[in-house]
Specification:
The chain is α/β, with parallel strands linked by helices and 255 residues long. The protein has a single domain, classed as NAD(P)-binding Rossmann-like Domain (Rossmann fold), CATH 3.40.50.720. Helices cover 47% and strands 16% of the residues. It contains 8 helices and 9 strands. It has helices spanning 20-31, 43-55, 70-84, 108-136, 157-177, 195-203, 205-213, 223-234; strands at residues 11-15, 35-40, 60-64, 89-92, 139-144, 182-189, 192-193, 221-222, 245-248. The protein has a 7-stranded parallel β-sheet with strand order 3-2-1-4-5-6-9, with helices on both faces. A two-stranded parallel ribbon has the order 7-8. Helix 2 links the parallel strand 2 (35-40) and strand 3.
Length: 255
């Protein structure tokens, strides 16, 4: 039985909300009563996702945002506040993968591309979310790291660097803003059944089979399971949880 959450009267912002874990979280927040701002680079997909929620009787808007552009990140938060008057919750989920590469052969361009989305994008979104939340004196932010933020794996240096960075960003901001009534945490998903992972499974079947062997639960995670962890971290039930990097990985990092 899934726990029940009540986010009535609250406003939640989710980046990377057009598919995968972001879409699952946006749906879960809406079903729990929150007004939801879905943000994504894919205009048609994010607007369709928002429309599905409004058609189901929820409050939702879709916003196009490239999180690598700080002005767009600021405008995204501005849209939330202009539409709903406040911002209570943010799930900074937008992220991309990097192709496997020998650490000696990774290009600077690939390193910059991955870190622009996975680390700088989280930094920019969090920065502008905090500017609104500190005026309210309340809020909860969850940043999406990865099991790659907790461990190292061969041929993943740039990606893991970006996800380790998210945890450092989260912890530092968390201790700064906890006294101001704002809780910041990170989640570290394992191998989750999302479109991004499906692409990896198709192109790197042997490598992914090896990774799954290290996931003791013996299966892919579901996007909805990650969403449940995000909702808990944003709920009063996690009111004393600050600055954690919570594995949601089927036991991968418990080895």
């Amino acid at each position: 039985m899934n726990p029940q959450y009540n986010f009535e009267g609250q406003v939640a912002l989710v980046t990377g909300a057009a598919s995968g874990m972001g879409l699952a979280a946006a749906r879960a927040f809406a079903q729990a009563g929150a007004a939801v701002v879905l943000a994504d680079l894919n205009k048609d997909a994010v607007q369709n996702a928002a429309r599905d929620l409004t058609d189901a009787g929820h409050q939702a808007i879709g916003v196009v945002c490239d999180v690598t552009d700080e002005d767009q990140a600021a405008a995204m938060v501005g849209s939330a506040v202009d539409t709903y008057g406040r911002l209570d919750i943010a799930f900074n989920n937008a992220g991309i993968q990097a192709p496997p590469s020998d650490a000696a052969d990774e290009s600077a361009e690939e390193f910059d591309r991955v870190n622009a989305v996975n680390l700088r994008g989280v930094w920019a979104a969090q920065k502008h979310e905090l500017r609104q939340m500190r005026t309210q004196g309340s809020g909860a932010i969850v940043n999406c790291s990865s099991l790659g933020g907790l461990v190292g794996l061969p041929e993943r240096a740039a990606y893991h660097a970006s996800k380790h960075g998210v945890i450092g960003l989260t912890k530092s901001a968390a201790v700064e803003y906890a006294p101001k009534g704002i809780r910041i945490n990170a989640i570290c998903p394992g191998v989750i059944d999302t479109p991004m992972v499906a692409d990896m499974l198709e192109g790197q079947a042997d490598a992914m089979a090896e990774i799954l062997k290290q996931q003791p639960i013996g299966r892919l995670g579901q996007a909805e399971e990650v969403a449940e962890a995000v909702l808990w971290l944003c709920s009063p039930g996690a009111g004393f949880i600050v600055g954690v990097a919570l594995p949601v990985d089927g036991g991968f990092t418990a080895h």
